[in-house]
Amino acid sequence: MPEVSVMVEGGKASPAAPLGPALGPLGVNIPAIVQEINNQTKDYAGMKVPVKIKIDSKKNFTVSVGSPPISSLILKEANIKKGSANPKTEIIGNLSFEQIVKIAKIKASDLSSYKLKSQVSEIIGSCNSLGITVEGKKAQDAIKDLQEGKFDSKLN
What we know:
With 156 residues, the protein is α+β, with helices and mostly antiparallel strands.
């Protein structure tokens, strides 16, 4: 059973590259696949998402959509197009702790931690490399507050 893996912009897949050249040789209904991908990814507009298309021997297909990278979710929550060119000196945005928890819950199955508090810590660390603060604090200070229990009431 052939499988094609691509990254597409949410809701904007087209028969052009990367889908067309990957699917063309398989003899499948490319417009139907593109439509299905767009239906499943419309909530991720403006973000690149991983998509897998499995094709069986009768040319039937199944589309499975992964979640966008952590950085894309952070940038979307911060309403910013791209991260800071120099995150050590340039802060370009700020997220609330609630927004960080929301991202952690979306990415829970992809993170190395099993506990929400540790998952939140991973997301805060990712904010650092994008030049985004959390509750107005740099990542290391926000993580320190998290470890000291200052956000425990918001983790439920």
